Amino acid sequence: MKTTKRKPTIYDIAMVSAASPTTVSMVLNGQWKKHRIKPETASHVLKCAGELGYAVNQKARALRLSRSGLAGMVLPHYRNRFFAGLAESFEAEARERNLCPIVVSTQRDPSIEARVTETLLAQQVEFLFIAGVNDPSPLNDMCTAAGIRCVNVDLPGPKAPSVISDNRGSAMELTELLVGKLQAAGLPIDDWFFFGGVREDNSTRERIEGFNATLARHGVSLPPSAFRCEGYAPRIAEQLLAERYGQLGRLPAGLFVNGIPGLEGAAGFLATLSKEAWNSTRIAAFDWDPFAAQMPYDVTMVRQDVEALIATSFALVDDYPEGETPLIVVPAKLR
C-alpha cells in the first residue's frame, strides 16, 4: 500500500530551526517584523522550512533576505509641481536602488492616510516616506509597530526623522526682496495680504513667522485681517483675494500667496481686473511653477529643492538613527 508523505508542521520546523513554534508561525505568516523578530532568525526559519518541503507562501519567500523590493511613499496629491516633483524624484531614486516605488495620494484625509499606510505595510514595503501629512505621528506609530523605517517629508513629526524645507528662512528672504521692490516702486511696505495654506500646519506657521520677522525689522506689524489661511485649493484663494479686494476697493501693494494652487486661484481673480488695477501690486509666492513666471504680473517665487529633500530622506533610510528623530532643514531658492 502506497503511503503519502506527511506534510511538515510548524512544530517540525521549530525543532529543526531551534525556534519556538510561535516564532515559526509569525515568520511563515509574514508577521516577523511586526513582532520584532530578527531578520537572521526569520531567514533561518524560512530556510529550514524550505528544506523540509514546507510550502512557504510567496510573501514569506520575499522575506528570505529581509527584502520585498518595494519602496513606499504617501503624499496629499499630484496637483502642484512640488508634490509631483517629490514623487518623481522619489521614483527615480528608488529605481536607482533597484527598488519598485509605490506612490499613493491621500487627499489630505487622515482616514485615507491610515488605510493607505496599513496597506503599504501589509505589502512589506522596505521603508515609507510620509510627505505632506499634517500629523504624521499615527502613521509613524504604525510603521514602528510593523518594524518599518519611515521618514516624514515636508511636514515634520516627533516620532520619526523629518526632512523639511527652510520655510521660515525662505519666507524671510522672499519678504525682504518684495519689500525692496515695493520701496523701489514708491509703494507702501505695510500694505499686505497673506493668504493660502492651513494656519495649523508647520509650513504655513513657519512662513508666517518668517514673513512677520522681516516686516518687523522694517517697523511693520500687520493686523489679523491681513492673514487668511483657510486652505490650499485655488477656488479658496480666488475667493479670499476677491473678498480682500472688495473690502479695500483695490488690491494690496503686496501679496504673499502661500502655495502654488493659491497662485492659480489668485491669477484667476487678477485676470478679471484691468492692468491698472494690478500693475502696482508685487506678488510673493511659495512654491514655484515655471508657467507662473510667464504671467504678466510681478511674481517672485520660492522653489523648494525636491531633489535634495528626497536625497536627504534616502540618506536617513540608509543610516537610520535608531531611537532618534532628527529634523533636517533643506534650503530653498528664490526664482
Descriptive account of the structure:
With 335 residues, the protein is of the alpha/beta class. The protein has three domains: 10-62, Orthogonal Bundle (434 Repressor (Amino-terminal Domain)), CATH 1.10.260; 70-160 and 306-334, Rossmann fold, CATH 3.40.50.2300; 167-303, Rossmann fold. The chain is 45% helix and 17% strand. The chain has 13 helices and 14 strands. The chain has helices at residues 10-17, 21-28, 39-51, 58-62, 81-96, 110-122, 137-146, 167-184, 202-217, 234-248, 260-270, 275-278, 306-318; strands at 70-75, 100-105, 127-131, 149-153, 162-165, 192-195, 197-198, 227-228, 230-231, 254-258, 282-286, 298-303, 327-330, 333-334. A six-stranded parallel sheet has the order 2-1-3-4-5-13, sandwiched between helices. The protein has a six-stranded mixed sheet with strand order 8-6-10-11-12-14, sandwiched between helices. Strands 7-9 form a two-stranded antiparallel ribbon. β3, α7 (137-146) and β4 form a beta-alpha-beta unit. α10 (234-248) crosses α11 (260-270). The model is unreliable at 58-65 (pLDDT under 50).
Using brief descriptors, characterize the structure shown.
14 strands; Rossmann fold; six-stranded parallel sheet; 434 Repressor (Amino-terminal Domain); 335 residues; 45% helix; 13 helices; 3 domains; six-stranded mixed sheet; alpha/beta; elongated
